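User: Can you recover a sequence for this backbone? Please restate the input before giving your answer.

Assistant: Of course. Working from this structure:
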């Protein structure tokens, strides 16, 4: 870790470092972002380098007002206006046609820009003082689990960034829902913190452009191996419940929804919500995955899916993606 790295809840250093084109981890209600001045190409390139992220994966811009959003896009579909009014500030990213001042580096040469007004008091106070948008992907190495605390960011990217604004644990805990409008049709590109039910209650039925329905992913969030821990992770589809002699329960961890696993040592288990509360489960998900990934005693994680409704769909999407690479290995 960078010994000069500061982790603090003071916003003044965050503002001045961003103005000097440095890299600052910012808290949001979803996950921590790795932020830089979106108008400075060298600062934006540092984001890609710190994350080891390919340039084909576009970044989301963060601002604090609708006026600033309007300067960065050339048109706002009526459904986009309705969603912005309903959910901003909050965990919704809109894909809208970008205006000329947004660099192609930010959008990976795509015609649309991903943009949102996040809902975190410290970050909104920082954004208010800036005369540029902040480009910020989740503050994790490419393809690893997103960070929901300042300490998660420090552990993984601490030596690559200039300051971490500590806003406490992210309250929502799972990334924003991404909605675009290809051909004017409201379309969900990433399941996220805002439930489909909530979106459809505002604008009616939406289309989907998710990895299962696409052969050419538009974005890295659509890659099947995203959000992965480094330990092998398998879905608990029932076959692990037997007393199979080959399973070494001592070396297995369990990510459960609302109950403990009977065979696995209790300190190797993380339960997302004993009250079966999907919001609590979302808030706990990434911390729980990280904690299991860091346990020396285990080499394998088995994970249970949650009810597939509301934010539960986004939680299941992340768990299935985390398991994706291992299903692939096993089938080979
Ligand atoms: O909750 C969030 O959205 C967090 C916080 C920090 O705001 N950010 C986040 O950023 O999750 P990131 O970069 O980890 O994920 C953004 C996803 C990526 O999969 C990216 O490919 C996609 O959004 N994306 C961004 N701009 C896009 C665009 N113009 N068109 C299509 N996909 C886009
Ligand atoms: Mg990410």
């Amino acid at each position: 870790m960078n010994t000069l790295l500061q982790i603090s809840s003071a916003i003044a250093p965050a503002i001045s470092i961003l103005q000097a084109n440095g890299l600052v981890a910012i808290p949001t209600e979803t996950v921590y972002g790795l932020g830089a001045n979106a108008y400075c190409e060298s600062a934006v390139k540092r984001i890609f380098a710190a994350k080891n992220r390919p340039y084909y994966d576009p970044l989301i811009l963060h601002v604090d007002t609708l006026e600033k959003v309007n300067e960065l896009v050339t048109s706002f579909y009526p459904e986009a206006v309705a969603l912005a009014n309903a959910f901003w500030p909050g965990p919704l990213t809109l894909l809208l046609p970008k205006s000329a001042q947004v660099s192609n580096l930010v959008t990976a040469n795509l015609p649309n820009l991903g943009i949102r007004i996040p809902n975190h008091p410290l970050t909104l106070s920082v954004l208010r003082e800036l005369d540029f948008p902040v480009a910020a992907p989740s503050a994790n190495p490419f393809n690893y689990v997103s960070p929901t605390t300042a300490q998660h960011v420090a552990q993984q990217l601490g030596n690559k960034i200039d300051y971490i604004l500590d806003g406490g644990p992210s309250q929502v805990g799972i990334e924003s829902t991404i909605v675009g409008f290809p051909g004017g049709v409201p379309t969900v590109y990433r399941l996220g913190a805002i439930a489909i039910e909530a979106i459809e209650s505002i604008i009616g039925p939406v289309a989907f452009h998710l990895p299962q329905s696409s052969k050419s992913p538009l974005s890295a969030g659509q890659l099947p191996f995203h959000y992965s821990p480094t330990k092998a992770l398998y879905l608990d589809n029932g076959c692990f419940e037997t007393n199979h002699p080959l399973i070494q329960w001592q070396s297995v961890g369990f990510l459960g929804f609302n109950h403990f696993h009977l065979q696995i040592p209790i300190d190797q288990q993380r339960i997302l919500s004993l009250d079966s509360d999907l919001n609590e489960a979302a808030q706990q998900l990434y911390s729980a995955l990280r904690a299991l990934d860091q346990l020396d005693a285990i080499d394998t994680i088995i994970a249970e899916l949650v009810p597939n409704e509301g934010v539960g769909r986004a939680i299941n999407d992340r768990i299935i993606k985390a398991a994706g690479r291992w299903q692939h290995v096993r089938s080979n």
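That completes the design. Residues 245 and 263 are 12 Å apart (CA to CA).
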